[in-house]
Design goal:
Layout: E1 12-13, E2 16-19, H1 26-37, E3 40-43, H2 44-52, H3 56-80, E4 85-88, H4 97-106, E5 108-113, H5 116-123, H6 137-155, E6 158-161, H7 167-182, E7 199-200
Parallel strand pairs: 2-4, 2-5, 3-4, 5-6
Antiparallel strand pairs: 1-7
Helix pairs in contact: 1-7, 2-3, 3-4, 5-6
Length: 201
């Protein structure tokens, strides 16, 4: 887990970035959390689709994963520059060091963690996941988990194991954890994490 200190004060962080593998619940939990906190919600994958006019699998097919990752990096930089948002990132966003630095510098990072088996149960009927269009999607998820879990933990201020909880329960639990995080001491220097990590009352 990131060793960056928590912002001082009460309330919630200005920007909240949700990370985790596909199927972890970043979009559904993020939408509900944003409503509860009065923030604007964004999904980086959806924003890429909106700006390009095509679905993610089409981008993978035409430009390959490398082309998609380049678009993802540009989109994350744009979104992270906003304020008072909840952002659901793509599962592979943490692969690029540049992305990890941007997320850690501009918001409070929350890792929604789930086991490969749980993720497979949630994504097995989803055809909009290019990386899972393989004969053994559970094996692929296990491989991705082993690769990415350390990267998620590297920048996460908060780690939440999602288990079988409902979206509402997870959003409520996360709201409480964020409030605790904002009340933590000691107070950081303004240069520790960036301007958008301050806690709003």
């Amino acid at each position: 887990m990131s060793s960056n200190p928590a912002p001082a004060g009460g309330g919630t962080p200005s920007n909240i970035f949700l990370i985790g593998l596909m199927g972890a619940g970043k979009t559904s939990v993020g939408k509900m959390l944003a409503r509860r906190l009065g923030k604007t919600f964004y999904d980086s994958d959806h924003e890429i689709e909106r700006t390009t006019g095509v679905r993610i699998p089409v981008i993978f097919e035409i430009e390959g994963e490398a082309g998609f990752r380049a678009r993802e990096t540009r989109m994350l930089a744009d979104l992270a520059a906003a304020s008072d948002i909840v952002l659901a990132t793509g599962g592979g966003a943490v692969l690029a060091e540049e992305n990890r630095k941007v997320l850690a510098a501009h918001g409070t990072v929350v890792y929604l963690r789930a086991s490969p088996q749980e993720l497979w149960q949630r994504t097995r009927h989803d055809r909009n996941r290019p990386l899972l269009q393989t004969p053994n999607p559970l094996g692929k998820l296990t491989e991705l988990f082993a690769e990415r879990d350390p990267l998620y933990r590297q920048i996460a201020n908060i780690v939440i194991d999602t288990g079988n909880q409902s979206v509402s329960s997870l959003a409520h639990r996360l709201e409480l954890r964020l409030a605790q995080f904002c009340g933590a001491d000691p107070a950081p220097s303004p240069t520790d994490r960036g301007q958008d990590t301050t806690c709003a009352p």
